[in-house]
């Protein structure tokens, strides 16, 4: 087990330093040529994704419930699909502000492709995937309580259906 996972509490944010964030479908992007430090925080405790811009002083926070899909793409890239006109909040030095630090680049975004710096480990990306899956599972079970009697049903079809539901709960929708 590497140091990243050994020293992390499950409620701690997972920070991934990025060399570029592509904004789809607009083709706009944020990168380290225009912003010396660029990262994304996946915060399980507050259930949001924060784009950290402008030397990490500014944040654009997107709640997990605005995320419709997630995948680890080629070359350790993370792609997050968002609902149209997704909600977001803006912060500067941890104080909420009204102005958008991305200067409107996220207005028509439907997905974000995070291209991490080369030294970011695959374990960090897998931790993000697990955190989002865990959040989705909690939401599902909060809205659809499962009775133990479902598991005791002798009908094979019902048992298979319950197993399938649990399998899909833990596997977030993949983007193709």
Describe it for me?
With 176 residues, the protein is of the alpha+beta class. It has a single domain, classed as PH-domain like (Roll), CATH 2.30.29. The protein has 4 helices and 10 strands, in the order αββββββββββααα. The chain has helices at 3-6, 122-143, 149-152, 156-169, and strands at residues 14-24, 28-31, 39-43, 48-53, 58-63, 67-72, 78-82, 89-92, 95-97, 111-116. Strands 1, 2, 3, 4, 5, 6, 7, 8, 9 and 10 form a 10-stranded antiparallel sheet that branches. β4 and β5 (58-63) form a beta hairpin. The longest helix has 22 residues, at 122-143.
Large-scale geometry: globular
Please give the alpha-carbon distance between the first and last residues: 31 Å
Number of helices: 4
Helix and strand pattern: HEEEEEEEEEEHHH
Summarize the structure.
The chain has 176 residues and is of the alpha+beta class. It is 25% helix and 32% strand. Strands 1, 2, 3, 4, 5, 6, 7, 8, 9 and 10 form a 10-stranded antiparallel sheet that branches.
Write the layout of secondary structure elements.
Elements: H1 3-6, E1 14-24, E2 28-31, E3 39-43, E4 48-53, E5 58-63, E6 67-72, E7 78-82, E8 89-92, E9 95-97, E10 111-116, H2 122-143, H3 149-152, H4 156-169
Antiparallel strand pairs: 1-2, 1-3, 1-10, 3-4, 4-5, 5-8, 6-7, 7-10, 8-9
What are the salient characteristics of this protein?
176 residues; PH-domain like; ten-stranded antiparallel beta sheet; 25% helix; 32% strand; disordered N terminus; disordered C terminus
